[in-house]
Amino acid sequence: MICSRFGARLCLARRLGLGAVLCTLLATPGLAQSTSPPAASQSDYEPAIAPASDEGEKAIARIKVPAGFEVRLWAAEPLLANPVTFCIDEQGQIYVAETFRQLKGVEDNRDHADWVDEDLAAMTVADRLAFFRRHLGDQLEARYGTEHDRIRRLTDSNRDGKADRSVVFADGFRGVLEGTGAGVLARGGTVWYTNIPHVWSLTDTTGDGRADTRTSLHTGYGVRVAFRGHDSHGLRMGPDGRLYFSIGDRGFNVQTQEQNRLVYPDQGAVLRCNPDGSELEVVHAGLRNPQELAFDEFGNLFTADNNSDSGDRARWVHVVEGADSGWRMNFQYLPDRGPWNREKLWHPQHEGQAAWILPPLANLADGPSGLAYAPGVGFPGEYQGRFYLCDFRGAFQGSGVRSIRLQPRGASYEVVDNEQFAWQILATDVDFAADGSMYLTDWVEGWDGKGKGRIYRIVPDGLADNTDAQSAARLMAEGFAQRPVAELRELLAHRSQSIRQDAQFALAAKPLAEGAPALVGRLQQADGSGTARLARLHAIWGLGQAYRNHVRVAGPLPSPKRVEYFAPVVAALQDPDLEVRTQAAQVLGDCRHVPAIGSLTGLLADPELRVRFQAALALGRLVPLAPGEAPGVGSALVQLLRDTADRDVLVRHAAVMGLAGLNDALLLKRLGRDANVSVRLGVVLALRKLQRADLDEFLDDSHPAVVDESARAIYDLPLTDALPTLAALATRSGLSDATLRRVIGANFQLGTEAGADAVAMLAARSDLASSLRVEAARALADWARPSGRDRVLGAWRPRGERETDLAVRSVRRNLAGMLSGDEAVRKAATETAVKLGISEIGETLLKLALDRQERPQSRADAVRSLSLLKDPRLGEAVEAALADRHGAVRGAGLQVLADRDAVAALRRIPTALETGDLAEGQIAASLLGRLDSPESQKLLAGWLDKVARQQVPPGLVLDLLEA
What we know:
- By secondary structure, the protein is an alpha+beta fold.
- The protein is built from 34 helices and 29 strands.
- Strand 27 and strand 28 form a beta hairpin.
- Helix 17 packs across helix 19, helix 28 packs antiparallel against helix 29 and helix 31 packs antiparallel against helix 32.
- The protein is globular and about 100 Å long.
């Protein structure tokens, strides 16, 4: 499993033209204030880049592609190096995000165990800077502020199929908080660049190929260090005209241009905003390290998310508004990854799964990175309708590009094909040019960047004679803003997704009186399937996009005119085509068209689950604007939950979003008295969205799933006022592992004597799983001085020191029961008693130490525990241990003897080294260094001489050297 493949940092960027469109959008009020370029100019920085060679050409022979395709080298070092991601603009120029800051400013917690607690505690980018300064002091700037990330622009100026010109478009990205620059998108003369902590907008106003203005649209990304490569990336224009991008679990705490604050410091997400950075919002949260994003022709958004190297697998994720995939960065620092593995949050949908998450559609790939969707032209038909995903594994062997095909299933999709398309290449990113040919960036080797990089082009046979492909390339290069409305309307039905989208954007950029009639005409032109069907969807999206553009410039239309404007979209809710109904519902919700509430409520009973799903999401956006509609909408959403009975998790999620939109806890709790468990579960999930502590009422529910979701909400968010109610469940039987762990955790957090008693009783309960009893015992051991890391989640939730006697009294009252159980339970109970200084455990430990029927390691641990207790019977245990037939037990006896009588221990060490087994010998070797007497040093010198003469068993060499 590959966890932090830095090279898998990519984004895919689409070209999509329209300079005039973007000029209009970027001129709107509220744009973040421009900032000066970094101090270093392009000419100041010259990183180490490999010289030109024929390696790139030679590598073509090993790249495997299907018959009917040819691989061609388009560019290689020194024209580019260390390519993280790239995009293609309207003219076919390629912008490459290069990195030279790996381990020179872009760090990884696996190399800095000493600051992990501070990283977990960080809530802002300023917090990260503060602990950088604490740890690095005066060295900070020199170590983290020297190397740059940057963007290069490559051009094939003579049209011979290879790049011949490379310029540094923008550099100077070398601040101590910056990197990795992992997302780039160029269209209409603007280049967007995601480089933690900023999302940048860059322009070249002089035409020399170098950015001379740069604006930070927002900042605050990368709160945590986390793992290298868990950055901000995936820039993509959506069908709604918004800018979409992703971030890994380095998290973010961002103030939007509207002065709202988005606080997600512990997780990755997909976000979106307008091209000028306004109206930033979170789309889908709880991701670990999503890389690229890609839309299909129906407006569905997908990503592939990375695994945590703990037996979990990477995931194919349907990105959905308001969804949470369940990952939190702090899980990484729990040995078993906590709920992520225990509760199978990374598994596709299955019986008994946590209901608060939206599970992945499938587990696939190992190092998911670049992602693109076939545009509809160029590749043969069997290769269209597919996603192409880079699978980066640190070496070209086993790496390449996967081809993934989906088919509808319920409100979502399922993976039906997952094949190797281009293999034996360390691809970081993939994208399609306007003519439908595929481009790949090749990292070449390793993880850190060797100063090399290539771009390959994969061309299907006959592309030069493919009229649709050549038409798309010509149209893209010519642009769209100047085209007549009638032509743009026809281009909505082009075979190329990129051409359809740019035609839509051009129509949406025109005044409403000019563009809207063409869009309405296309919507109402129900003249078949194929691209004509897709043209109707673009018309719907275009009407929504045009209205939002108008609102941002001129404000909302007056009510009568707004009703008139959206009447064709409302009428489309009754269209025979399910995709038309679906997208009409989505746009009406997105544009907050309140008069559509009645029609959308009716769609909750549509025959197609996909339509119901979008209708429920739309109602979640609209109902807050019309509180009087809440009771009727709430009843309809409850009926949706009854009808679908948790069978489709997307529909349940949408219903929950709709219920949360009611924002009426009293109404929700009244609805939650329903006899149907699916309804009660949905209400709990909605109350969780609203972060209502009074959902603790549902802890008394008769159904385990409702109790589990209530417990998860209270503990995980946390809902602090409800923790006592959760803690009180300790006496209830029949609770799940997930809930009982949170019950233990709640009592531990509260730290009361009643809580200590409750945890001790759980540790003594013979009907509970051993793992839970062990956890309860260990919680008691840590009671007085709790770690700042939460026991269940690993999140930073520090508690002050508490009175040791609380835990001591509770353990004493329950010690007999805590010591009954399997070996793991007894060991945990013993360790707890020893740590708390409970001397009564001594007799039990002595029996264990002397019982030769017990496992040797258990007896060795018992001897050591008696020593920690300073038990008066320790001498008897040591004497027996030194005479034992097992080396592990003898070694423990020797270790304890060294603390009691160093001279006696020294007399035994030569025998242990010469004739003892490996375990005893290793302990004896370590004692030579610890005893630190002339005699021990002389003995050690003699054994080191034997090491030099290779007269020592290999298993003892390292221990003697370390001594």
